[in-house]
Amino acid sequence: MNGNPRRPSWRPPRRTPRGDLHGVPFPLGDWGHPAARLDELYRWAEDGAIRTIEWYLGDRLWKRRVARVLRAGAVLGTAAGVGLPLLGLADGQPGLARWGYVWLLVAVACVGIDRWFGLTSGWMRDVATAQAVQRRLEALRFDWASESVREVLGPTEGTASEAAERCLAVLRRFCEDVSELVRDETMDWMVEFRAGPAPLHTQALVGWGRHCDGGQQQHRFPLPPGNRPNMPRQRPPEGPGR
């Protein structure tokens, strides 16, 4: 690494977060100027993290809006479902109780839609992942600043190639951490998406396997309770004196 100033010579285009989260091609360049080349890689890693944060924050918006509408519908439905029957009893109008059941059904439907599509939990995961990537990006900036200061003041140990390897290790560890955060969020979404009839079916299969492997014999036709099979009684052996 030489003392040339680092100029942001490469920056990927940023677009509005839509669709899936796609990666950016790895920048290819000449290593004749290591400082400029490392700056390109830093800008590539930083912009990739910023795009990830923008994608999660953009995906959070519509989920939060729909979830709030459903939550409000559930609260209003519950209040109307409880209040209308009481109002009908007070005013002597039993027909209001029927509308109370309808509003309770609306509240249950709102909660079910929210849980089935994972809207509330989805925008919470988006916020948590965006904040985690933001914290990791801040750590990268401070690590990169420390490496830049070390380069300006002069390496106290090692050579320029070792300093470049340290910078590459910092960028690689950062990219791996961001990818791991995205992977963890995806795995949480998959677990929540499969938390329906499938886990119950799997649990039933596991339970059947445990019963079969427990060492006890499984009877196809179970014996009625209280009845034990009658075994023929054997006569005791006679002594030698008889």
TrEMBL record:
Name of the featured protein: SLATT domain-containing protein
Segments forming domain SMODS and SLOG-associating 2TM effector: 20-209
Keyword Plastid: no
Domain of life: Bacteria
Region of interest called Disordered, as start-end residue ranges on this chain: 1-20, 214-242
Keywords, comma-separated and alphabetical: Membrane, Transmembrane, Transmembrane helix
Any matching Pfam family: SLATT_2
Keyword Transmembrane helix attributed: yes
Coiled-coil residue windows: none
Bilayer-spanning residue ranges: 69-90, 96-117
InterPro entries named in the record: SLATT_2
